[in-house]
Amino acid sequence: MTDKYETGMQVRRHVLGDAHVDRAEAARSPFDDAFQRLITEGAWGTVWASDGITDRERSMITLALLAALGNFDEIPMHIRATARTGASKTDVLEAFQHVAIYAGVPRANHALKLAKATYAEMDET
């Protein structure tokens, strides 16, 4: 494994938690192995590992981009990650308000719906 991969796995576990990463790794197969290496090295070992901005800021940017681009499937995962990155509910609301203005109210509305449901699940545990 490369240094970027090892760093990526450490950062991924820090941000998403061991349980999430363990589930993802258990589902890994030869079919998606190259893709998993790519995202671990690129997203987690390079982008998320950078010290150019804080994890809190990175969470806000990631959530805003996911919502703005309509990539809603990953929003709950990144909402759960805010418990580890320090992005507050207010931070997330502010990010989604920017989405509403710059990318569209329907996308922000759907992202807020997902965030509310995810926060409710988090509060239950």
Describe the structure.
The protein folds into two domains: 1-50, no CATH class; 54-124, AhpD-like (Up-down Bundle). 78% of the residues lie in helices and 0% in strands. It has helices at residues 3-16, 18-27, 33-47, 55-68, 75-85, 89-102, 105-124. The chain is globular and about 40 Å long. The model has no long low-confidence stretch (mean pLDDT 97).
SSE inventory with pairings:
Layout: H1 3-16, H2 18-27, H3 33-47, H4 55-68, H5 75-85, H6 89-102, H7 105-124
Output the number of helix runs: 7
**Through-space gap between termini:** 35 Å
Q: Tell me the domain tally.
A: 2
Per the CATH scheme, the topology name of the largest domain is: AhpD-like
* Helical residues, percent: over 70%
Strand content: under 5%
Radius of gyration, Cα only, in angstroms?
15 Å
Task: Give the uncertain stretches in residue-range form.
Answer: none
Number of strands: 0
Q: What is the CATH homologous superfamily assignment of the largest domain? A: AhpD-like
The CATH C-level class name of the largest domain: Mainly Alpha
Mean pLDDT: 97
- Do you know the CATH architecture of the largest domain? Up-down Bundle
Structural class: mainly alpha
Largest sheet: none
GO molecular function: peroxiredoxin activity
Domain Carboxymuconolactone decarboxylase-like: 34-117
Organism: Pseudoponticoccus marisrubri
Protein name: 4-carboxymuconolactone decarboxylase
